[in-house]
Amino acid sequence: MIPNIEIDLQYAGTNNFTHTKLYPPTGDTYLRKKAARALTAAQAALNGKGLGLKNFDAYRPFAATEQMWELVKDDRYAADPKKGSGYNRGVAVDLTIIILKQEKNWIWNWL
Prior knowledge:
The chain is of the alpha+beta class and 111 residues long. It is built from three helices and three strands. The chain has one domain: Muramoyl-pentapeptide Carboxypeptidase, domain 2, CATH 3.30.1380.
């Protein structure tokens, strides 16, 4: 649904605070329609400036939330499984903005 978004799901690998894979690696990720539409609009706006989105996390299985809670047990850093999280509901994402095409003098083009 979101053209050329880069996906690098950190919890599908070991490059995260748990240092373990919390779910299988995949090239896809999921969100509810309203959240996905908002990201589609953001991606389109960024693409017009030569930028884009990189997604590190989105929907995650409830079991991943339970595993995080076992390590941290502090709702400032991990969701309490009694409440769940926006990630379990498909409405939260971890993103960064990336440069889609880096030219030799990209900083001057941006200014």
